[in-house]
Design goal:
This protein has 791 residues and is mainly alpha-helical. It contains 32 helices and 8 strands.
Length: 791
């Protein structure tokens, strides 16, 4: 059910009207269509409407269904069957027949709309399918408080209409911690904190944001949500969850984001980098590596798997993921039939499918037996690597040396020269045989030298025929279709001839595409504020929630496109807004009027992601490695988890040592059938499918993880050593203050300091060991709700 979000939107508009002292003018697209979509379209939508009643157009609603009664009588709600049914107290008449009743606020809106004439513009397109136009920035609403940042003008106007004041600033320390987590995923160091607190220059905030945007760790932080979207993992998935080489794609994402690769190019390279004119992997492998986005789809290599069915399922995954990531649309609902709510037909789906139906087969039977396991065949792209080239050069040199010795020994009339002690006793023929045996071994060793490689997309030589698959079954093809895009969206104009993936990629980021920029900036807003301007980032369709700030969403989308598709530019704008700088403190009034902060009358506050929680613990402990990139690492996890899995390559989980044990969570190996357990406890995605937003839970397992997981125990021990070693004054109060500032970037209150000092005293009395006592304090600090929360 998503009725509660809709109810909140209706309530927010009502609050704004009350504050203005007047009922707001009803807008069908904003106020009425979402109610019909949420309450009525399940039964009276586009496909097979019950009782013959369509509620997707005014004409059909006026005609009514099989009963002959009109659903709408413009000007009279009392005579309208729609109104009477949604307010009926009788269970056999009330609509909808199942689920929650329609809330009073929505019923009141419907009554006002019908009584006012039931205006329903014919041909009205859903807001998300109309290209955004830059709206005028609202004029100042409060004298003397001019907004430099347009974001604040939009938010302030919306908030003022609801009669809500802004929250005060969060304070410098709180803002620095917030923006550090949001831009690089790490807490500020104490030198950074102290420098910012002392910096009273007018551009102090700007310089902090610019420093963070320039950090190499920016790409690591922002790669995390993109890898969730890309369903990136280091294994196939399914029962035979073998490991595979995907990590160069992950590193490409980090590099691209650090370089602020324009999002249109970021998109084109991932969807079709292999098809770019003049692309040469020997000259520049990056566009090819980028196509790993769609090679990240799970691959079934289990024995008995039908190869064509597996290939078709991968294409389904690529279509559905593209629709979710770039279009914010549930295209998968048209896989078996026309979409029930949105204007996507099944034919639209398979025309889109045809773009991704042209790549090479990625599996092959390992033997001729039909029951044999499937081999994972690529295609792969070998990558340049200095260490590998050095090993190959050494191997080739050894072969040349052996060839020379064999030639010298086997030459007719060879002169016998002095022999080494190892060969002196052997007859010439025996020595020749030994050399040839050594050469064979050296040749085999050279052949086994493999450098890094990665999975890439590659087109087949001859185009495949694509058909509509009846009910989504690959065994039941129907009408043949050519590559194309949904008819409700702007038409695709291919560069030449038959459209291909490159044409699709360029269509996605064309200026007239109404969805891509909106969907993208909305996801970024979600990362900063916890919830998007559209609460349903995966669904901008009719069943999705409308934006709370539609003008702001459109302004950001246009600014994004016209600003060169720069991700860092939009992030800078958000991070420097007064809206973002607000305190996250909740007052009783705000809680009552806007519990979920949809009007942005306070700053964001929510738990950190799984990777950031671990990264922070290692960072404040002084253990975190700053190393970027490379193959996945294996930090501690309970023994036997991989080995216990049925099927697969039976790889033993060998715990990384040294620096690799303390790498950022981004680099932790991601095995789909057995993800890193402490990440799962904090709601990380399994990445079996595209994940647009992670859930955010609060469970006892999380506290137990922070207390008992050896990674956090080690972090607590290292933090304790810092508390003993670093404060200039070797006393309990100084050490408590130091630990508190490291973990939450602020001074402890007297009460908080007293609690931690008392904990130290009890542990010291019990164990007689300073390290043990301070480790207890460090563990408590790492377990604080404030430590694992961005506020």
């Amino acid at each position: 059910m998503i009725s509660r979000p809709l109810r909140r939107v209706v309530l927010l508009w009502s609050l704004a009207a009350v504050a203005r002292g007047a009922e707001p003018a009803i807008d069908f697209g904003r106020d009425i269509q979402p109610i019909l979509a949420q309450r009525c379209y399940d039964c009276h939508g586009l496909e097979s409407p019950r009782a013959g009643l369509h509620l997707t157009s005014r004409r059909q609603a006026l005609a009514g269904g099989r009963s002959g009664l009109p659903a709408l009588v413009p000007g009279s709600a009392e005579q309208s069957e729609l109104y009477q049914r949604i307010r009926s107290p009788h269970a056999d008449e009330a609509m909808p027949p199942k689920g929650d009743r329609v809330p009073a606020a929505e019923i009141a809106l419907l009554r006002r709309w019908i009584d006012a004439g039931a205006e329903w513009p014919e041909g009205l397109r859903h807001w998300a399918y109309v290209a955004p136009v830059r709206p005028a920035v609202p004029s100042e609403t409060r004298p003397g408080s001019g907004h430099v940042n347009p974001i604040d003008a939009f938010v302030s106007a919306r908030r003022a209409a609801a009669g809500l004041p802004p929250a005060p600033d969060a304070g410098r320390a709180a803002w620095l911690r917030r923006v550090s987590f949001d831009l690089i995923g790490l807490p500020p160091t104490l030198p950074e904190l102290d420098a910012f607190l002392a910096d009273r220059a007018p551009d102090a905030y700007e310089r902090v944001v610019d420093r963070l945007l320039a950090s190499p760790h920016y790409g690591e932080r922002w790669a995390r949500p993109w890898l969730d979207l890309a369903r990136y993992a280091d294994s196939h998935g399914f029962q035979r969850d073998d490991l595979r080489e995907s990590w160069p794609f992950r590193d490409w994402v980090v590099r691209a984001m650090n370089a602020d690769l324009p999002f249109d190019q970021f998109t084109i390279q991932q969807v079709a980098g292999d098809l770019l004119p003049g692309a040469d992997p020997q000259v520049n492998p990056d566009p090819f590596i980028a196509t790993g986005f769609h090679r990240a789809a799970p691959t079934n290599v289990e024995a008995g798997t039908d190869q064509e069915e597996g290939r078709i399922n991968q294409v389904f995954d690529r279509v559905n993921t593209t629709g979710t990531v770039w279009l914010g649309s549930t295209l998968e609902c048209a896989q078996c039939h026309d979409h029930k709510y949105d204007p996507f037909t099944q034919r639209d789906y398979y025309r889109f499918f045809a773009f991704f139906n042209q790549t090479e087969q990625e599996t092959a039977f390992a033997t001729a037996k039909a029951t044999a396991n499937l081999a994972f065949t690529g295609p792969f792209l070998p990558l340049p690597d200095a260490a590998t080239e050095a090993r190959r050069a050494a191997g080739e040199g050894r072969l040349r040396q052996l060839d020379a010795e064999i030639a010298a020994l086997a030459a007719p009339g060879r002169a016998e020269g002095p022999r080494s002690p190892e060969t002196a006793p052997a007859a010439p023929d025996s020595r020749l045989a030994a050399l040839r045996k050594a050469r064979l071994k050296a040749s085999q060793e050279l052949a086994r030298i493999e450098g890094p490689r990665t999975l890439v997309m590659r087109e087949v030589a001859e185009p495949r025929m694509t058909s509509v698959l009846k009910r989504g079954s690959f065994l039941d093809p129907g009408e043949r279709v050519e590559p194309g895009t949904p008819e409700v969206l702007p038409a695709l104009a291919p560069a030449t001839g038959r459209p291909n993936r490159l044409d699709l990629a360029r269509w996605l980021v064309a200026r007239d595409n109404p969805l891509v920029a909106r969907v993208t900036v909305n996801r970024w807003w979600q990362e900063f504020f916890g919830t998007g301007l559209v609460r349903t980032p995966e669904d901008f369709g009719i069943k999705g929630e409308p934006p709370t700030h539609p003008e702001l969403l459109d302004w950001l989308a246009v600014e994004f496109m016209e600003g060169g598709w720069s991700m860092k530019r939009i992030h800078r704008l958000i991070a420097l807004s007064a809206t973002y700088r607000q305190s996250s403190r909740v007052t009783p009034e705000l809680l009552a009027r806007d519990a979920e902060n949809r009007l942005l009358a306070r700053g964001p506050r929510f738990r950190l992601e799984a990777e950031a929680i671990r990264d922070q613990a290692l960072a404040v402990a002084g253990l975190l490695s700053p190393k970027l990139g490379g193959p996945p690492v294996r930090p501690y996890q309970p023994p036997g988890l991989w080995e216990a899995k049925v099927g697969g390559d039976r790889v033993t989980y060998e715990v990384s040592v040294g620096e690799d044990a303390h790498r950022r969570g981004l680099y932790t190996v991601w095995k789909r059938a057995s993800p890193y357990p402490s990440f799962l406890n904090f709601d990380a995605a399994t990445r079996a499918a595209c994940t647009v937003r992670r859930s955010r839970s609060n469970t006892p397992l999380q506290a137990l993880t922070l207390l008992n997981d050896p990674v956090y125990v080690e972090a607590a021990a290292a933090l304790a050593a810092r508390l003993v070693r670093e404060p200039p004054a070797a006393d309990v109060a100084a050490r408590v203050r130091h630990g508190f500032r490291l973990c939450v970037s602020r001074e402890p209150s007297p009460a908080e300091a007293a609690v931690l000092a008392a904990l130290h005293a009890r542990q010291l009395a019990a164990h007689g060991d300073e390290q043990v006592a301070w480790q207890a304090v460090a563990s408590a600090l790492l377990n604080l709700d404030e430590t694992i929360t961005k506020n």
